[in-house]
Amino acid sequence: MPGWAGQPEPRTDGSQEYAWHCAPFTEGAQYGIEIFYPYDNELGVSRKNGKLAFDGDFGARPDNSGDLMWPPFRSFGQDYYTYQLLLDLKVGKDWAVRTEPHPRFYTDLTDTVPVAVPALLRTEWWPMISFVVFKSPVEGHTHIFRPGEPMLQILILPVTADFTLAAMDEEEAAEREMRGRRIHGSRPALAADTTWTSRTDTVFDGTYRHLLRAAKAREGK
Q: Which run of H or of E encompasses 54?
């Protein structure tokens, strides 16, 4: 910071609140693999009269580029466009690679951050992520790719979400209820030195951060 998650304002009364002030968001944003836009030129993708327009100078095709698509962006139907990623990530047969919008998409107030479309790829037998799909901007808006900026996030997940929702038994539910009550009861003490009110009169405290720090210490991380 400063960066896409906000300015380096401290957690103190009168500060502007930013996404990085929230520990769950920060951990979520740091989870996975960032993919950065690798070119030196800026590219704008916009929709004009219902058609996609790519505004950027990629220059001549690189020497020895083989089958490389040039430029590496193209329309994909009416509402999407693709980027030729050519990234080889191999994970085991029980795992998959999932593309996601980069977390800065959720902090963007300009509607210019590219929106990667989620896709689950089984790379144990699929040898390369040839391209990724992005959602097209709405009419009159422009998505901008800038040198060195992250453009999507990749997560490594179980290939099958083999989960079953089940009701808690009474003992487990009671234990969870008691834990919640204890946290609520001790919150004034836990948050005594970390409570602050932003300039929009939103109250924050560091209870979750204190507990997270304690959990990591207990786990030796």
A: strand 51-55
Q: Please, are residues 81 and 47 in contact by the beta-carbon 8 Å criterion?
A: no
What average pLDDT does this structure show over 73-100?
A: 93
The model's pTM: 0.87
The one-letter code for the residue type at 39 is Y
Contact 132, 89 (CB under 8 A): no
Give every CB contact of residue 22 below 8 A, 6+ residues apart in sequence: none
Tokens of 58: 């990629």
Decide: 124 and 90 in contact? Cβ < 8 Å. yes
* Count of residues making up the chain: 221
Alpha carbon distance 62, 68 (integer Å): 9
- Coil, helix or strand for 99? strand
3-state secondary structure of 33: strand
Q: Is 136 exposed, middle or buried (0-12, 13-18, 19+ CB in 10 A)?
A: buried
When pLDDT is averaged across residues 80-108 and rounded to a whole number, the result is: 94
DSSP H or E run through 83: strand 80-83
pLDDT value at residue 1? 54
State yes or no: pLDDT of 26 exceeds 80: yes
